[in-house]
Each structure stands twice: as structure tokens, then as C-alpha cells.
Amino acid sequence: MKMKNAEFKMGRAWIEVNRNNLRHNVEILKNAMQPGCELMAVVKAQAYGHGAVLTASHLNKMGVRAFAVATVDEGIALRKSGICGEILILGYTEAGRASELKEYDLMQTLISFEYAEVLNNQGIAVKVHIKIDTGMHRLGIASGELSAVRKVFSMENLKVYGMFTHLCCSDSRHPEDIAFTKGQIDNFYRMTGALGDSGIILPKLHIQSSYGLLNYPDLACDYVRVGIALYGVLSSPDEDTLLKPDLRPVFSLKSRVVLIREVAAGESVGYGRSFMAGRDTRIAILPIGYGDGFPRNLSDGKGSVLINQYVVPVVGRICMDQLAVDITDTEGISVGDIATLAGAEGYDDELSVPAVADHSGSISNELLCRMGTRLPVIAR
Q1: Which one from 44, 127, 131, 204 is the annotated catalytic residue?
Q2: For the residues 327-344, what does the mean pLDDT come to?
Q3: Catalytic annotation, pick one of 4, 61, 159, 271
Q4: Strand runs (DSSP E) across 143-274, as ranges?
Q5: Phi and psi (nearest 5°) for 301?
Q6: pLDDT value at position 3?
Q7: Is residue 271 annotated as a catalytic residue, yes or no?
Q8: Is 302 a catalytic residue?
Q9: What is the average per-residue pLDDT within 45-51?
Q10: Is residue 87 within 8 Å of residue 103, measured between CB atoms?
Q11: At residue 371, does pLDDT exceed 90?
Q12: pLDDT digit string, tens, across residues 112-125
């Protein structure tokens, strides 16, 4: 049967990025920041599945000049694509790659004092941000180790451009988590205050990520590292935050109907025969699966998709490259029609990214990061 939709040329499945919503979110988030604070766009993991180069390019055009990535290779990819401004690597980089940090003008996070020593000993001038561990106990120099931090400022080959910490439960509004977060903030400012009192000129400081901004908006910093909120969603549905900005989703995941099958009552669909038709059933096949990042545990009715105006259930097991949906109770669906699997506007309760992630037992951050490895990303 001939594909009826001209969008067939877009392929079997794709990610759409809404540039207008991205611009809107940038403006809304900037307005929520304290005066003098700059938005640092977190574009690691392919910009949470939105396409790192595409997203960063649009952000550059919007005036964003500070970015954060997870790895040196992510940073290099941005530079090779012409991205301007500061690029901070939040994670570990092998010290032997110091020459690449300099060549591509990347800023490296110091994950420990020992790491700082090794990086300094490479004999190559590198721009760095010092990470301070204020209680998350993951990366960073402990907030009580003032002498170690002071020594970093005296290291010949490390040029300190920033200091930051990471708040591990700033998304929570539980009293005990709020108390812990305020303790982290106090630990950070105690450290920076002591450094200033000792005569060190402080670099730019940053504490807040998305939830740090939404729940602790009054903090006066030089950057806010905005990740998930930049893309217009929260990690989970129905989360309560102090600020409730009008964020708009940027991401949508789409595929198309490539085959419609008639399955008689009593017949099965897919691996393991986990779906048995209780009636004569019309099945639509979509050429997208867990190999594209769509979670397998949304099989057997746990997930649904939007085709035309109909929200229809996934039936049987989601495969690596295909899935099936039940369209028996619909009219007019045919081969070539577009299906939206996540990010359907106007269907927030069922098909928003947070809802789809929640149905799969995860969060928006993970669901989005699983996308974008083999799917094309299209801006609209």
C-alpha cells in the first residue's frame, strides 16, 4: 500500500525539537534568575536526547554563551560544530588529554585534589572549575578541606574560572530534604567565604541546577546549570516546586504506521504470545522499538501512542525495532499516518514525557537520554 503522507521522507521514526518552545523556556528561566546570573545550558547526553549540536546551535543564536557537557568528547563535538562560548566538562577527563582541553578551549571540572595535582603536572595550561563536595559525596573536594582548595589556586597550570557544588535533593520539598539542601548551601558559602577572607579572588560561582533554581531561586550565583527544565519538563509528573514557570515541552518522539494487520480472535501478536486477541482486532505496526530508546517495559498495554486523534494502547511486547498498537476502536487510521509516542501536545496526562517516563518506572531525564542515538533529530 502506498504511503499517503508526504512526511514519509522523514523516515521511519524521528525526534522533533520545537525551537519556539526552547526559546520560550530560555526567556522564562532567565527571568527567574537573580540579576547578573547567567544561564548555563546543560547539553550532555545529546542535550537530553534533543541533539547536542542542533540544540546548542539554536541556543547560541538565542544569546546563550555557557554550556555544560559530561565528557571531553561531547565538548570537542560542540567546538568542531562551531559552538561559541564557555563549555564546562562536568565529569572526569583523563589527564593525558590536557592538550585537547587547551586546543578546544574547554573547562575541566576538578573532581578531587589528587586529580588537580595530576592535571597540573601535565604542564599544559588548562581552564578549570573546582567542584566542592558539600554532602552529595560523589565528585569534588570536601567543603572542609580549605587548605587543599587554596593550593589549587596556586597551581601553575590550572587557571580557575569557577567553583561549584551540586545539590543532591533540591527537587524535594520534604522538610528534612530542605534542611539538608540548606546545609549544603551553607557549606559552600562557608568555604567560599573563607577563601575570600584569606585573600583569594573568587571565581564565578554556581550552585543551582534546574531544581535548585525552581526551589531556591533567591541564591545569588554567577551561573545556573539548567538541564531538564530547559527542555520544558520536570523529572516526574505532578512534582511540586516553589516556582512554577510556564515551561513548554521541546521534545516529541514520532514514528509512522507502516503496516496494518487483521488479527482474528484467539490469535497472538509478538514475542512470547503475550497478547492474545480476545476479538477480531486491527493492529498497526510502528517501526520503532527499544533499540531507539522507547522502553520495553511499556509493553502489553502499559504504554500508548497518539495516532490522529486517538490514543491507542501498545499490545504485545515492544521489540528492538518495532511495536504494535491496537487500532480496532478507531476510524480512518491508515499506512503513513504519524504516531506520537511521547511529548504529544494537548495530551499531557497520558503522553507527556514525564508521564511516559513514570509509566515505565523511570524519570524524564533517563527517558530522554536514551533517545537520539540512532534517531534523526528534526527542528521545527
Answers
A1: 44
A2: 95
A3: 271
A4: 158-164, 204-206, 223-226, 251-256, 259-263, 268-269
A5: 85, -5
A6: 38
A7: yes
A8: no
A9: 96
A10: no
A11: no
A12: 999 999 999 999 99
